[in-house]
Amino acid sequence: MRPLIQSLEESKIREVANEAMGRSDVLAFWFGESDEVTPEFIRRAAVESLERGETFYTHNLGLPELRQSIANEMSRRHGPTQIGVDRIAVTSGGVNALMIASQALISPGDEVVVVTPMWPNLCAQALIMGAKLTPVPLVPVGGSWELNMESLLGALKPTVRILILNSPNNPTGWTLTRHEQMTILEHCREVGIWVLADEVYENLYFEKTMNGCAPSFLDIGQADDSLIVVHSFSKSFLMTGWRLGWMVAPAKILSSIGKLIEFNTSCASLFTQRAGVVALERASEVTPRVVSHLKFCRDTLCNGLKEIQGIELSAPRGGMYAFFRMNGHSSSLAVSKKLVQQVGLGIAPGEAFSEESSEWFRWCFASKDPMRLTQGLQRLEKWLNVESKK
Ligand SMILES: Cc1ncc(COP(=O)(O)O)c(C=O)c1O
Predict the structure, then answer these.
(1) How far is it, in rounded angstroms, from Cα 13 to Cα 97?
(2) Atom of ligand 1 at shortest range from CA of 198
(3) Which of 169, 202, 323, 384 could form a cystine bridge with 213, CB 3.0-4.6 A?
(4) Which of ligand 1's atoms lies nearest the C-alpha of 170?
């Protein structure tokens, strides 16, 4: 085994979830997915594909009709410039697109700048490729997280190969502004740095915008920019278990991306891709409902948390997570384990995401029944009450 692989950290979220093994009374909010099943018409498309006997490989880059639908959808969201089908690769989930992007761009020893806290897989993938990571931490200001642009631009030196960032951000809900994106993209163009932007939560955005999405690098990027943007069906179509995503990349690297897909998975499964075509065709029946329900869940949870004394948070602008800290309870891994053991509440420790967020906690509010959130809040309050008397 490569020592580097052996040294990869195990997921601290799993470590907490393992505490609940064999228990049915735990309210779990630790993973990043809704507990609502995929809409019936999307599931039906996959079943019909299988019934037609579509059990074969597809083109490495995906079914032509799915790539075309994705190109149309990306152009609709991020026009007026058309995003061509020659820039789209279908992958087996967003995480697979991110790994392939890392494989395509990172050589051992390359310097990679990451904006943290961030979903741990993104850093792990770069490390697997042998990158030297330079984290640029976001700064918590009154419960919300902000980017110090001076620190970021200072870190983006000519020796850096890629900048990896995720906005809207898991776990903090921090979202890049248009102005910040323009500053970053212009700097990276000038210095010659690739931008790998994880925008899987772009639809799950709660502020008013023209296209209903969070600001995207695709709104401002040129077709030949050194920019890869990663997307997924998981979050906005309730399709986490399907493993279907895509990337938008410069057309000139698409054949190399196709080779990497061949050597990783060969292609996303055909019946899943058929479901993806239908999901995009009927997106207006799914995503707006998912987003408005999520907004209700966000408000339920965040308002409830704000009422608890000693909790610091600000409502996230995007994503599906509340990120908060609790006065006097700074060891997030140990506290998360106690919450499971003692009151059956499952949340993720900030320690899973970066050093600077080790006192914070992540609570996924994508819950079909918002009553679960209210019950979770009651359990948290009960635990804090008992603790305060110790
Ligand atoms: C920030 C971020 N990027 C990418 C993904 C990957 O999503 P998927 O592989 O399900 O498409 C996730 C999943 O939680 C995520 O939080």
Answers:
(1) 22
(2) 3
(3) 202
(4) 1
